[in-house]
């Protein structure tokens, strides 16, 4: 164990933490609060930070500000917070499993799989938001199971094989999504395309509360998987010698990460870049080889909140869906990553 790590023991259980990681999480939490405050005051009717704080504290005498901040903007901010945290943590798990900086749900097709279920509901069933969200979660989980089984196929499902199979399945589903959009009527195709762009617009408590509950339910399982995943990064054979049930652990980790991705996609549509960049930025800032689950979640929340603020404050009155904003930034980041990496 590194000298910089600290251990707290509670009976037979123990908690290992690093001061630098804890400091980074605290700084990122502060940034989330600052960005959230800025977002609550941003819009057609702008409010200064003092007015926003007064509304949140219940001391504002402005009923218009209370209705807008509490009823319209706060659910959007909380949805962005939960979606960003879910994607950041999911990206950290995928990159640990694949031992590859490109091993994010965007790249390996799980986000595309969740989108397939949503498109089927929108185009074939003309379903409403609850059915679309449930279909996205179910389809994402089914895609993950398919990729895992194909990657296994009578041999240990190594990380690189998992990524390659995921890319192939994702490409197939992307083609299916395109066929559905082309063959549907115009109104439903437009509705599906709007959903595919990824958006935080018109998010309500019906989006924020399920996203928060799902995150709270899945995080303990993800944290329990952190130590075995860190051992698996040394190689499957080494992990087995240390007592890790590799294939079972890989399945649990994949389903945990896909559950995080699917619930995030159900709440806001496909959001690119966050799951790819957040874990890498967190790992570089922490400066440790440990799996940065909490810091990646905090970094994901910061990135999505910052992207949302940027999308609302573009010059010339231009507004962009959050999915397009993160996709644009993520494309530039991916090019930079490929240019500087000698392993890709």
Automatic annotation (TrEMBL):
Membrane-spanning residues: 77-95, 107-125, 131-150, 162-182, 208-230, 251-279, 322-339
Q: Where in the cell is it found?
A: Cell membrane
Against SUPFAM superfamilies, the record matches this protein to: ABC transporter involved in vitamin B12 uptake, BtuC
Question: Per UniProt, what is one Pfam family of this protein?
Answer: FecCD
CDD domains for this protein? TM_ABC_iron-siderophores_like
List the InterPro entries hit by this protein, alphabetically.
ABC_BtuC-like (IPR037294), ABC_transptr_permease_BtuC (IPR000522)
Gene3D superfamilies membership: ABC transporter involved in vitamin B12 uptake, BtuC
Keywords, sorted A to Z: Cell membrane, Membrane, Transmembrane, Transmembrane helix, Transport
* The keyword Electron transport belongs to this UniProt entry's keyword annotation: no
Membrane topology term: Multi-pass membrane protein
Which stretch is the leader sequence?
A: none
Main subcellular location: membrane
Q: Does the keyword Iron-sulfur apply?
A: no
The cross-references to PANTHER family, in alphabetical order and at most eight, read: FERRIC ENTEROBACTIN TRANSPORT SYSTEM PERMEASE PROTEIN, FERRIC ENTEROBACTIN TRANSPORT SYSTEM PERMEASE PROTEIN FEPG
Which family is this sequence assigned to? Belongs to the binding-protein-dependent transport system permease family. FecCD subfamily.
| Protein's UniProt name | Ferric enterobactin transport system permease protein FepG
Q: What is the protein's species of origin?
A: Methylorubrum suomiense
Print the organism lineage.
Bacteria, Pseudomonadati, Pseudomonadota, Alphaproteobacteria, Hyphomicrobiales
